[in-house]
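tool=predict chain=A
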Amino acid sequence: MKNINEIHLEDIIDSLRTAHVKLDLEFLKKLLKNASGSDKSWRNVEFGKKIGCTINTEIHIVNGINGWINGHTTVPVPKLIKIVELSDYNWIDIENNLSSIKAGRKKGEIRPRFPMKIGHKIGLIVGHILGDGAINKRGESIFFCNSNPELLNEFIECMKDFFGLEPRIWVQKPKKFEEKTQWLKRVTKIEDAPQNHVVGLFYPKICVQIIKSIFGNFADGKEKRITQEIKESDSEFKRGLIRAFFDDEGTVYKDRCMMRLFQDRKDILEEIKSMLEEFNISSSRIRSCIKRDKERHYFDITNYFDFLSFYKRIGCTSTYKKISFESSIALLRKGRKSKYILSLETTL
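tool=predict ok
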């Protein structure tokens, strides 16, 4: 996926073999008529066999097609692929007349817009999944959990823009770190959650299938990684990824003019360091510490130029972290190196 700025349906259709597609009904009728060479495609037994449908031999009906053209059922992707191959239409025609996609007959439905733009917003989604989010082990859902409404709303808006749907929102019961997560109640919007409670956002399986078809298996339960597809993505995607990851896993020490990124997996931090270098931002070597009887890894950014560069080139969504950044920068301006700091700001 090297430096690809947009994804068309054709680029990912082979990864969606278990999915079902809903098309504009008038277009679907034209497509079936063209592919079958018949005004009554549901009676064209040979056509039905070619696309893998079962045949009702008693009344010579192609099972499935009647349900499709009446809008009662959706078209399985393997059959759609064969229909397109037999027709004069192409995949751009299909995506222009796409109503929705779902993972199976009854799985959660999404309304993505093609071509999908691979840039800052999808970078934010992937960064949050690598941070406080997850894709569950069975690949059934995308999940993002946080107590900061700003980050939760950011994730919601990016997912809505990319996949065209709202999440299921659950409020978590207050708990100690070592205790198992329990859910208090489901709410319709973030504002309905009790203040300072952790909120979980859930998205259906088809979102998992699409995002992994683009970026590889970067999250699988507790196992997370920076895939080759992520490494080869463009700078705007990486800018979004780093920003979201920092909002979830980073902190700013405003009294020391220093920022730090934490992570359980050292290999992920190594890749984030490499991405930062692409923006000419240097960081310290990766160190480790024991927190709650568990080894954690981290690196710092303390150099004046790198600290300012991160704030201006990457930034953050959290208001609290923005204030911490700005307080640190204000301290730098007041210090003995204030002229140096101001000259640096003009270069960024």
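The two ends are 30 Å apart (CA to CA). The chain has a mean pLDDT of 91.
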